[in-house]
Amino acid sequence: MINILCYGDSNTFGFVPVIMERYAVNERWTGILQYILGDKYRIIENGLCGRTTMFNDPCKSSRNGLHSIDATLEISKPLDLVIISLGTNDLKVKYSAPSNTITQGIKRIISAIRNYDYEIKCNVPKILVLAPPPLGDKVESVNNFSEFDKNSISVSKELSSKYKLLSEQENVYFFDLGSIIKSSEEDQIHFTKESHKIVAEHLAEKIKNIFEK
Question: Coil, strand, or helix at residue 81?
Answer without folding.
Answer: strand
